[in-house]
Amino acid sequence: MLPGGSTVIDVDGLSFSYVNALTGERVDALDGVDLEAQPGTLTLVCGASGCGKSTLMRALTGLIPQVTPGDLSGTVRINGRGLAEVPLAEVGHLCSSVFQNPRTQFFCDTVAEELAFCGENYGRDRAVLREQSDRAAALMGITHLMDRKLSSLSGGQLQKVALACALASGAPVLLADEPTSNLDPAAIADVRRALGVLKEQGLTVVVVEHRLHFLRGLADQVLLVEGGAVKRRWSGEDFYSMGEEKRRSLGLRTLVDPGAPEAWVTRRRGEAREEGTRVEDARLSCRNLCFSYGDNTVFEGLNADFPAGQITCIAGANGAGKTTLVRALCGLAAPSGGTISLDGRPTSRRQRRAACALVMQDTGRQLFSDTLAGELTIGASRADGEDGERLLADFDLAQLGDRHPLSLSGGQKQRLVIAAARATRRPVVILDEPTSGVDARHLDSITTTLRRIADEGAAVIVVTHDGEFASMCADRLITLTPMDASRSREGDTP
Questions:
Q1: Residues 10-34: pLDDT tens digits?
Q2: Which of 41, 245, 389, 411 fits 220 for a cystine, CB–CB 3.0-4.6 Å?
Q3: Per-residue confidence (pLDDT) for residue 374, from 0 to 100
């Protein structure tokens, strides 16, 4: 038994299988999972994409079997209550959740309304609600966003709001599925600090993560899931003392903090093929670029170059305008001023849409076909036959070629849209947080693919907060700073 006293979460012999509604395929998602967690402890669940981690979290929230039907055996108890018998409307008293895609769990218009939503549903006193909301907002560093509409926030800001909502719920258990997927290093530090406070307050925390380094010193136990079963268990101390060779053999991501963005390119400098890039070499350039949403100026006077044959990473705090910038670059959004040039010539939005392949933050928005193989042929003339099969194999998706894309896990969808972007063979490839939900092995395959795309002459542009990934692939770095901190600027490493 872990330190902390009586068991709060008790999972005994949990197995779950279901029939995929899109494919008719029977999926054995969980296989005899056992889990115990006590008050004031944090359990880290890790493993490859598609191994069953998110399914386990859905079982812990009561969504399985009450929302997701299938064949369930074993038990899930929280504070001694079997979740299969607890009405779903009451499960929120027992646990709060943060989903992989926070957009799927919001109901209100503004941040303040969303923070109060859970408590209002349960009829809590308004003064208590305000206190809980203010405390949660302060912990997550979003006090300045309270009056903002959720629709106006970046992906990372939405992630922080979802976490704050979970903290404000007052439930004794927090379940978080990839809570740092879109967060900048400062926000990840906020999450770490908040989790530490929750442990001190006696809450029971379960976190599913691929990014492992930030939980050093917080995790009390670590579970490695493979094929729906718990294959390895460690104490937090034993896990984080693991050697690099062992870590790699288990397919886990780094256990060491990759550092600040400024270090990412420096770390790769010995591998970089050029010590700088002249403006005239740029495949895509922007000059004096400005963008505003109404009265909200996102950036102004931005100058940046994106050379062919190189990978340029764009970093910066959540809300600094990174996603807005790449949407403008690829023609999906209209800047309020400035010019964007392709191969030295000013271009229209229509021309940029034709020249750029985009991998969005929310990959579900760009899946259109009913098979993985079909997805590769959209917008591409050379992605059928052997070429398509090779692309799927490169991303460990060959065995899923006939599956419906929406039936995949989050990490599998991410790999599919990157494969589809490569299939287009366009001169500019833009990726917005391409490693969300991606495990170590597939992090390597994505890095290799982007390097190959750059070597073929494309300009590769990557928005990322993932230091481990950037230190593996970045040739150049552009850092954006929120306008309320200082003017946006190019921070290219020469």
A1: 999 999 999 877 667 788 999 999 9
A2: 41
A3: 84
Residues 380 and 419 in one domain: yes
Distance CA 89, CA 470 (A): 42
Residue 280's pLDDT is 56
The domain in which residue 204 lies consists of 9-249
pLDDT at 380: 63
pTM over 0.90: no
- Provide the pLDDT for residue 484: 61
Question: For position 263, what pLDDT does the model report?
Answer: 67
Q: Which two tokens mark 167?
A: 């903290």
Supply the pLDDT for residue 5.
56
CA gap 333, 349 in Å, rounded: 8
Q: Which residues contact 224 (CB under 8 A, 6 or more apart)?
A: 46, 47, 230, 231, 232, 233, 234, 250, 252
The total number of structural domains that make up the chain: 2
Both 302 and 429 in one domain: the answer is yes
Are 318 and 460 members of one domain? yes
Q: Identify whether residues 168 and 198 lie together within a single domain.
A: yes
Residue 3 domain flag = no
Does residue 464 share a domain with residue 355? yes
The dihedral region occupied by 316, where left means phi > 0, alpha psi between -120 and 50, and beta the remainder, is: left
Does residue 493 form part of some domain? Answer: no
pLDDT of the residue at 462: 95
Q: How far apart are the first and last CA of the chain?
A: 53
Say if residue 238 is in the same domain as residue 340: no
Task: Pull the structure tokens for residue 484.
Answer: 């309320």
The whole-angstrom separation of Cα 482 and Cα 491 is: 14
Regions of the chain short of the pLDDT cut 70 = 1-5, 22-23, 261-280, 379-386, 484-494
- pLDDT for 265: 63
